[in-house]
Specification:
Blueprint lengths: L3 E7 L4 H13 L5 E7 L8 H9 L3 E4 L8 H17 L4 E5 L1 H11 L6 E4 L12 H15 L4 E4 L2 H9 L7 E3 L6 H10 L2 H5 L6 E6 L8 H14 L3 E6 L5 H11 L5 E4 L6 H6 L2 E4 L8 H9 L3 E4 L4 H4 L7 E3 L4 H12 L2 H18 L2 H17 L1
Parallel strand pairs: 1-2, 1-4, 2-3, 4-5, 5-6, 6-7, 8-9, 8-11, 9-10, 11-12, 12-13
Helix pairs in contact: 3-4, 4-5, 9-10, 9-14, 12-15
C-alpha cells in the first residue's frame, strides 16, 4: 500500500506549537505516512534542532517565507510558495497549525482537491487584548478560511467553545487534547539537579513557572502576586524559566516590587523534568491558552498546580479536585491560592495525585497522535 503523503505547515515555530508539531511529525507511523514540513525559521533559532531530527527521520523540509505579522507583500509570497509546493508535491493531505499558516495553507489548497486539517493552538480572538477592529478582522478571516478546510482540531473543549462562540461551523470542529511524552519527562525528573539549575538555596520552597515571556502568560500579575506571597511565606522562591520579549520589563517590575531576591530567572531548558521535580508548586498565570503543555508536564511529575481559569487550563484542572483555579489578571486571588497550597501540604499532595491521574489517563502523546491519525484516515476515506 502506498504511503499517505502529508504536508505539515507551521509559522509559529516556538513554544507549545513547536512541541505539538514535533510530537506529531515524529509520532506518526512512518510505514503509513510520508510526512513533510513547510515551516518558517525566523521565530526561534533553536528550532533548527527539530529540523535536524526531522531530516534524520527522513522528513522532507521546506522553508517558507512566512512571518508572524500581517505583511501583505510577505504574505503573498508565502501564499504563492505554498501554492506552488502543493501543486507539485503530490500530497494527499495538508495539516496547518496556528493562525498564519492555517489561513495561508487553506487558501493555497483551494481548488486543488486536497483535504486540509487546521489546528489553531488557541485562536487569536481568544486573547483579552484582541478587541475592536482586530477582533472583527481575525474572526472574519477564521470564518472565511473555515469554508476552505475540512476539519478544525481544537486542543481543548474550551477552545472549541470559543470557536463556536465566534461563529465557526460546528460540523468542522473536533477536539483532540495535546499530549506529552511521559517516559522521558519522568526520566529527567529522576535525574535530579533541578535545585542547582534554579539557583535555590537550602530551605527555599520553589514555586515554578515555565514558558515564553510574552503578554499571554500573565507574568505581570504573577509578580504582583509574588510581592504578597514573599511577605507571607518568606522561604518561598519563584523560579521563572524561559526567555521572550518581555523578560527585561519583567525583571524591572520585580525590582520595583521589591522581590528581586525571591525570584530566579532561568534560561529555557532542554530537560525540564528535573525542574518540576525540584519545585513544590507549579503556577500558570495565563490570560488565554489552548491546552498548556506545562500544566500537563507538571501534573505528570506530580506537582500541585495553580492556574488561571481560562479555556484550556480549566479543561486540564478541576478546581479543588485536581488543582486550583483563580480568575485571570487578579494578583490577590493568585497570591491567596499560592499561599494556601504552600501552607497545606496534605491538600497539595491530594490535588497533585488527582492531577497526575488525569494527565496520565488522558493527555499522552500516544493518544494525541492516534486521534489525529484517525482524523486523517476518515478524511482520506471520505
Amino acid at each position: 500500500m502506498a504511503r499517505v503523503r502529508v504536508l505539515q505547515v507551521l509559522e509559529a515555530t516556538e513554544g507549545g506549537t513547536r512541541t505539538h508539531l514535533r510530537d506529531l511529525v515524529l509520532g506518526l507511523d512512518e510505514r503509513r505516512y510520508a510526512v513533510e514540513v513547510g515551516v518558517a525559521v525566523d521565530r526561534d533559532p533553536d528550532f533548527a534542532h527539530d529540523l535536524e531530527a526531522f531530516r534524520a527521520r527522513g522528513v522532507g523540509v521546506h522553508l517558507l517565507p512566512m512571518v508572524r505579522e500581517v505583511r501583505p507583500a510577505a504574505d503573498l509570497r508565502a501564499y504563492l510558495r505554498l501554492r506552488e509546493l502543493l501543486r507539485r508535491g503530490d500530497y494527499d493531505l495538508v495539516h496547518a497549525h496556528s493562525s498564519k499558516a492555517g489561513f495561508l495553507a487553506r487558501a493555497a489548497a483551494r481548488g486543488l482537491g486536497l483535504p486540509v486539517v487546521y489546528t489553531p493552538n488557541a485562536f487569536r480572538f481568544q486573547a483579552p487584548d484582541c478587541g475592536g477592529l482586530e477582533r472583527w478582522a481575525v474572526t472574519g478571516l477564521e470564518r472565511l478560511a473555515a469554508r476552505w478546510g475540512e476539519v478544525i482540531i481544537c486542543v481543548s473543549e474550551g477552545e472549541r467553545d470559543a470557536a463556536l462562540a465566534a461563529g465557526l461551523p460546528p460540523e468542522r470542529l473536533t477536539v483532540i487534547p495535546n499530549g506529552i511524552a511521559v517516559a522521558p519527562l519522568l526520566a529527567d525528573a529522576e535525574a535530579g539537579g533541578g535545585r542547582e539549575v534554579l539557583g535555590a538555596a537550602e530551605g527555599d520552597r520553589i514555586v515554578l513557572t515555565i514558558g515564553r515571556r510574552v503578554p499571554q502568560k500573565g507574568d505581570r500579575y504573577l509578580l504582583e502576586a509574588w510581592a504578597t506571597v514573599s511577605r507571607r511565606v518568606p522561604d518561598a522562591l519563584l523560579a521563572i524559566v524561559g526567555d521572550g520579549p518581555l523578560l527585561g520589563e519583567l525583571r524591572r517590575l520585580a525590582d520595583g516590587l521589591g522581590v528581586r531576591t525571591r525570584v530566579r530567572w532561568v534560561d529555557r531548558q532542554a530537560h525540564v523534568g528535573r525542574l518540576y521535580a525540584a519545585a513544590e508548586v507549579y503556577v500558570l498565570a495565563s490570560l488565554y491558552e489552548g491546552c498548556p503543555y506545562t500544566l500537563l508536564e507538571a501534573g505528570a511529575v506530580g506537582l500541585p498546580c495553580v492556574a488561571t481559569a481560562v479555556a484550556g487550563s480549566r479543561d486540564v484542572l478541576c478546581h479543588e479536585v485536581s488543582g486550583v483555579l483563580v480568575p485571570p489578571a487578579e494578583p490577590a486571588a493568585l497570591a491567596e491560592a499560592l499561599v494556601g497550597l504552600l501552607g497545606d501540604p496534605a491538600r497539595a499532595q491530594r490535588l497533585a495525585a488527582a492531577g497526575r491521574e488525569v494527565v496520565l489517563g488522558r493527555y499522552t502523546v500516544e493518544r494525541m497522535v492516534a486521534a489525529t491519525a484517525l482524523v486523517y484516515e476518515r478524511l482520506l476515506a471520505g
